[in-house]
């Protein structure tokens, strides 16, 4: 397993920060606020699949943007219901 580039972490964090919705990353037994750059730095590993829960007024737009940014950096992501 290898970590991901700092640029990927920053882009994911900045993308999430541009939405009002709550965006929570689930990885193993951890729940991380994607708007927390420290949480992302300690949690993202390239060879894992992640689940994002997105809730809020701009949820649809946030999901689309997060899917695109995760895919851009080769990270597998699914969305909770």
From TrEMBL:
InterPro entries: HPr-like, HPr-like_sf
SUPFAM superfamilies xrefs: HPr-like
Parts of the chain that traverse the membrane: none
All residue ranges annotated as the HPr domain in the record: 3-71
Lineage: superkingdom: Bacteria
Pfam families tied to this protein: PTS-HPr
UniProt name for this protein: HPr family phosphocarrier protein
Native organism: Cohnella yongneupensis
Lineage: Bacteria, Bacillati, Bacillota, Bacilli, Bacillales
